[in-house]
Amino acid sequence: MFVIFAAPLLSENAFGMVEAIARLDGVRLGVITHDSAEKLRHLQEGVAHWRVDNVLDVPQLLWAANGLQARNGQIHRLFGAYEQLQVPLAVARQALGIDGMSVEAATNFRDKARMKTLLRGAGLPCARHRLAGSMDDALAFAELCGFPLVVKPQAGAGAISTYRLDRMNDLLAALAGAPPTIDAPVLLEEFVVGEEHSFETVSIDGKAVWHSMTHYHPTPLTVLENPWIQWSVVLPREVDDSRYDDIRSAARRALTVLGMRTGISHMEWFRRGDGTIAISEVAARPPGAQITTLMSRAHDFDVVREWARAMIFGEFQVPERKYAAGVAFLRGQGSGRVIAVHGVDQVQRELGEMIVDAKIPEPGATPTTGYEGEGFMVVRHPSTRTVEDAVLRIVSTISIQLG
């Protein structure tokens, strides 16, 4: 089969996906990207490459796909993991007659206001929201819903440009620079208070065949608002416990409503103080924040490879859950470059073989602007409580000094 993977840049994560696809038996791979073919030089021979200036632009995507098809034969699959690419890829697949997620379904996942309208219409629990096309509309929703509120882009990803607003003056200030219009609306949501989690599902032909879950501590919005916080994500071993019956059922229903067919989805959801749940949003792509690493380590399998097999062949090998796993994100204190990293040796002595992955920044490194920070450490253990204690120990012991 000839398959094409598209990505704006061949980042470490994207390159790992390209490697996983290229190594599958029976697959010939093409790559559409902004990067040059030089980035692919370490892969086995036979990976086709086509560079574009803007992979999100459908005409360029079609130009590249048609060019690769002319050289390599019929395209059987066209897909990618970048959230902003899902609708352009669906439009290109439709134009080329390639199987995959429809334009309607891709839009359901990408347009967060439309998504919530569909979910609430199906009786699924999610935050009250409004896609405000004017200042008056935004102010009216604020009066109706009350504060705090969350403002975010209509087609956001990874909590980027997402803010908490605590009073009317905050809302006015947030929208003053670029007041919402019909053509450029903003999404306002009720601020849901509670523990925040993710829920990942693998679907084959519209049927959920496997799931996983994580817990964020603290919430991603809190992390964005406080760049100094070292935070963690824990994948518990007990994701099939009865206490998660409600979210497992809601997640399956949500995917049906949105039109998920084959692939992996990443849902963010809350457990309120009264025990009820609220779905925040769902993405039709592999998760970020090292969650794919956690899933791989908790089950001793390569989740990226299995995602690729699902996307290409419609197959998925359900693994045994052997461990709980957690990641602690290491973020710099202060400003400037990395001067020193403290506490790593102590953590390594205390946790030993529990540590299965680590990225520790070197002195002189420039801090990142992303929420994952300057480094991370991944641990696993058969006991969820032990993993929770371990990530807490990491974030409270290791410190990255900037200056």
Summed up, the domain count is: 3
Radius of gyration: 22 Å
Helix percentage range: 25-40%
CATH superfamily of the largest domain: ATP-grasp fold, B domain
Task: Supply the number of helical segments.
Answer: 13
Sheet of most strands: 8 strands, antiparallel
Oligomer: single chain
Describe, in plain words, how this protein is organized in 3D.
The protein has an eight-stranded antiparallel beta sheet with strand order 13-12-9-10-11-14-18-17, with helices on both faces. A four-stranded parallel beta sheet has the order 3-2-1-4, with helices on both faces. Strands 5-8-6-7 form a four-stranded antiparallel beta sheet, with helices on both faces. About 1% of the residues have low confidence. The radius of gyration is 22 Å and the shape is globular. With 403 residues, the chain is an alpha+beta fold. Helix 2 crosses helix 3 and helix 12 runs antiparallel to helix 13. The protein is built from 13 helices and 19 strands.
